[in-house]
Amino acid sequence: MTMRICTVVGARPQFIKAAVVSRELAAAGIEEDLVHTGQHYDSSMSRVFFDELYVPAPAVDLGVGSASHAIQTGLIMTRLEQHLSDAGHYRLLLVYGDTNSTLAATLVASKMQLPVGHVEAGLRSGNLRMPEEINRIVTDRLSSLLFCPSELAVENLAAEGLTEGVSITGDVMRDALEQFIDVAKARFDISRMIDHEADRYYLATVHRAETADDPDRLRSVVDLLASLDLPVVWPVHPRASKRLKEFNLTVPGSINLLPPLGYLEMLSLLSGTKAVLTDSGGLQKEAFWLRKPCITLRSETEWVETTRGGWNTVTDIDPDRVRTALAQRPTGEQGAPYGRGDAGKEIASILTGWQGKGSRR
Ligand code: UD1
User: Fold this and answer.
1) Ligand 1: residue whose CA is nearest its atom 11
2) Cα–Cα distance between 286 and 288 in angstroms, integer?
């Protein structure tokens, strides 16, 4: 009998991850209904990813939009519960990463006795002030299948007593990068996107609530970026652009603000940058894979493996630490801590062989 599953996505990076896995699920003969929660809804935050990555439009859009954590999570839960009740039998609900969409979907499925598979399981920052950390811990605890990107993720789960249903698959973002880097560079020439030559700019992103929502921290980030030795290209997430306006922050001309970019444009800019400054998780890994030095503007990282060999330096927003890190040019071996680009196939293969055993319920 064909296996039928429901996948829930809602935020930008999840569209990229699901694009990789959905293709492999289809190739393995697994039937998938894609549900979009609507957490990200602007065309530049959602539709562009479906178009660029050739993902069929979601079967269902729950249309929740932006709101407080409780309202957003609650709305997704209410509407997803209705969809799952109407849609009939699924064998599994598949979720990605650590957003409110991930958490809400996991809670609903768990209470409906529907096993959950979590892609990007086992990540921990150790910082419970991050909403993402709360989302990860709860999602992992309730998931029956835990698809880990790395050994460390498996160890993190074991430390919390989670060993059943755990597998190392590698990171699906690596699959995506390998599949799309050439087309990204061919389709989006850097010279047509920005006024700077390759290796003559830094690429920066800031979107985490703990930075963007704090006026002093956001001002420090702007000052920091303005003080660097090269111009900065900053594609601005809507959360950050809203806060820049609200806090009346003036951005100097050496910082080139761009609207939110699609995946391919971002990969192309990344391939030409001298270094990356970011608080994003995904970008830390993409920089690592493309052998671009990364400065992480946070006090910790979940992607600890990227710091080995000096490829990623966690500096918080300390200008001296940032400048020191930028002056160093890492050259070390990286190994393959997140697999070699076949995570999607591995996940599809585990699902094909899965008999529903190992369910926590
Ligand atoms: C969410 C995730 C974060 C992830 C990020 C990826 C949570 C708790 N956070 O953060 O883990 O790294 O997505 O991008 O789930 N907005 C728009 N248009 C949109 C979407 C958002 O204008 O299409 C604005 C709204 O003002 C909204 C704000 O951005 O209030 C934040 O959006 P939200 O989805 O709440 O969180 P993100 O910061 O995007």
Assistant:
1) 99
2) 5
